[in-house]
């Protein structure tokens, strides 16, 4: 399977890792420099910010897992094979979505 896709995955992994690093440092609840405020409004804002950051970080981590899985398959074999029907995943599909685990037929079916 193409080097271009591997490059794309490696670039995405780097970008995800960078984003995760940023989110970690921007989490208001993890920021030791934050001013502790006693007003309810501030507490709510911080809590909401925290929830959103947690959700985003979870999503980034999930994508990172998928990218790593795809890279592992490129190295060990089995990349581009549909997990459901074991058929080959369309190359154009992989170029658009390098972490695709299902072929277009199975993906459409499961929706
Ligand atoms: Zn399939």
TrEMBL record:
Listed Pfam families: zf-dskA_traR
Cross-referenced SUPFAM superfamilies: Glucocorticoid receptor-like (DNA-binding domain)
Keyword terms: Metal-binding, Zinc, Zinc-finger
Zinc finger (dksA C4-type): 82-106
All residue ranges annotated as the Zinc finger DksA/TraR C4-type domain in the record: 77-109
Organism: Candidatus Woykebacteria bacterium GWA1_44_8
Protein's UniProt name: Zinc finger DksA/TraR C4-type domain-containing protein
Gene3D superfamilies cross-referenced by the UniProt entry: DksA, coiled-coil domain
InterPro entries xrefs: Znf_DskA_TraR, Znf_DskA_TraR_CS
A GO MF term: zinc ion binding
